[in-house]
Inverse folding.
């Protein structure tokens, strides 16, 4: 049907203004409809491009998730052929998996591996697709926080594009890490908790289910679920308070309870790794102690050290956010101050503050070694929005002194500049990332080539998960804080015939004895060394 052309000259000023307003309304409706899928496609393209620079999984947990997914796809269930540590006593090297790391990353990959065959590029593609959902979630979140703000679409676009091109979010999405699923589920939980969960019973239930799945992605999800329940209780009243909090809890338990029952059947307890021990260890290497016949229990830090660790954990988390949001991270405080009256913002900040403080104060050693880095993706969309808003209002306020007529334009240009800077960071990071992953790929290829000439059997390593992923051999962790005689006891206990060491790759810690302790150690004979790989025969 053809539209009749309107002669604007025949209309009154009021009619012309009404037509312009209607045209603008339709144009904005188109933007609102297509912006989220376009942001997804933009983020997906960026992640697929970055995947070409990452040909080998990151160390050491991504290899674990990939191998468990392979076992699931092959019908072997949730099993793994490595001992990452000795926090949970295992009767054999091959055992029920996920006593420490959570299963969702593997559960998501397994159907794709079953359908198309296991491969790292396939895992990268799945991770890229999941991670790309953060960009449209950033748009939705900005719309909630800035409800009624005349510039909300501009800040929503900034948030979505910032997330789409964020180098660290991209890296996590294409390395097989659990962080990408946790980021998306955590951000989705914040979006639901900011509105839908408060208004309807179904919303409360769905938000609880999302929180439960975030727990299956990373253990920090249980913390977010607890904060969510308290927040929901505080933000509702009357009969809605009890009903919606109960429904949200039911959603969490519908996901978490089956997992706890599985753990109880597999390990004898719903949560196999003792949380109190994780709170008290003096450094990361201490986690790999073997409590055997010649050694005592796990080391714990004294009070002064505990305080120092928590201060260091707090500083680590600040540093993580600074680099995630570079260059506008400090201005997120300005944005939070400016937008504090937004109920959706307060919901997001409650979840973000809980994640920041709990990781630093409860589990400082873990967060110093990457826990908050792996979990922070869930709060990057809200912090990106706040940093962009803070950058805009700060730049506009400064520009008003010199060029008041273009102050808003100056703020917009600086926000655009922050996105452009991210693109430059991404380009630089890809070169460095490609080089680092190529080194890892070469080192593990050297180890695999040497082991291929040896009889089948378990090996010991300081990178057991990645070595198992590459070679298929059962692998156990070198007990880093223990002397060689304890390492020898562990090897004898689990039948390891060689120690395959990648000394440049860690993990490190002040309590580690290695590699120096092996120089004159009884029972260990160096038989091979090349390209950063050192192999010892265990006699």
């Amino acid at each position: 049907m053809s539209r009749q052309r309107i002669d604007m000259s025949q209309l009154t000023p009021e009619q012309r203004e009404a037509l312009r307003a209607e045209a603008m309304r339709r144009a904005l409706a188109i933007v609102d409809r297509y912006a989220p899928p376009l942001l997804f496609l933009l983020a997906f393209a960026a992640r697929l491009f970055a995947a070409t620079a990452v040909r080998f999984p990151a160390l050491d947990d991504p290899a674990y998730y990939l191998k468990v997914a392979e076992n699931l796809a092959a019908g072997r269930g949730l099993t793994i052929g490595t001992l990452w540590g000795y926090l949970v006593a295992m009767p054999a090297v091959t055992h029920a998996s996920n006593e420490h790391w959570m299963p969702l990353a593997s559960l998501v990959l397994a159907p794709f591996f079953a359908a198309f065959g296991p491969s790292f590029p396939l895992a990268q593609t799945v991770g890229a697709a999941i991670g790309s959902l953060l960009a449209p979630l950033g748009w939705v979140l900005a719309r909630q926080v800035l409800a009624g703000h005349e510039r909300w679409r501009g800040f929503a676009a900034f948030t979505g594009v910032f997330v789409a091109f964020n180098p660290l979010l991209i890296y996590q999405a294409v390395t097989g890490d659990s962080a990408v699923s946790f980021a998306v589920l955590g951000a989705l939980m914040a979006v639901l908790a900011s509105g839908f969960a408060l208004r309807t019973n179904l919303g409360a239930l769905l938000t609880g289910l999302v929180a439960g799945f975030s727990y299956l992605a990373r253990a920090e999800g249980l913390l977010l679920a607890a904060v969510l329940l308290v927040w929901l209780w505080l933000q509702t009243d009357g009969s809605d308070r009890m009903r919606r909090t109960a429904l949200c809890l039911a959603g969490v338990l519908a996901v978490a309870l089956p997992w706890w029952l599985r753990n109880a059947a597999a390990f004898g307890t719903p949560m196999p790794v003792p949380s109190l021990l994780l709170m008290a260890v003096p450094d990361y290497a201490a986690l790999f102690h073997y409590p055997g016949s010649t050694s005592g229990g796990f080391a714990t830090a004294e009070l002064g050290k505990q305080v120092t660790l928590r201060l260091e954990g707090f500083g680590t988390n600040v540093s993580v956010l600074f680099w995630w949001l570079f260059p506008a991270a400090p201005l997120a405080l300005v944005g939070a101050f400016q937008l504090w009256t937004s109920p959706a913002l307060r919901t997001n900040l409650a979840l973000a503050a809980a994640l920041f403080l709990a990781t630093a104060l409860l589990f400082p050693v873990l967060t110093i070694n990457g826990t908050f880095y792996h979990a922070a993706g869930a709060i990057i969309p809200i912090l990106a929005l706040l940093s962009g808003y803070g950058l805009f209002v700060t730049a506009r306020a400064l520009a008003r002194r010199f060029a008041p007529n273009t102050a808003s334009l100056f703020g917009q240009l600086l926000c655009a500049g922050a996105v452009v800077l991210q693109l430059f960071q991404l380009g630089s990071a890809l070169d460095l990332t490609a080089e680092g992953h190529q080194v890892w790929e070469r080192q593990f290829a050297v180890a695999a080539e040497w082991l291929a000439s040896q009889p089948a059997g378990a090996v010991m390593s300081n990178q057991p998960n990645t070595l198992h992923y590459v070679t298929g051999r059962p692998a156990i962790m070198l007990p880093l804080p223990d002397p060689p005689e304890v390492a020898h006891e562990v090897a004898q206990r689990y039948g390891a015939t060689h120690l395959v060491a990648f000394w440049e790759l860690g993990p490190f810690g002040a309590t580690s004895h290695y590699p120096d302790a092996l120089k004159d150690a009884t029972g260990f004979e160096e038989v091979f060394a090349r390209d950063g790989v050192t192999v010892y025969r265990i006699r």
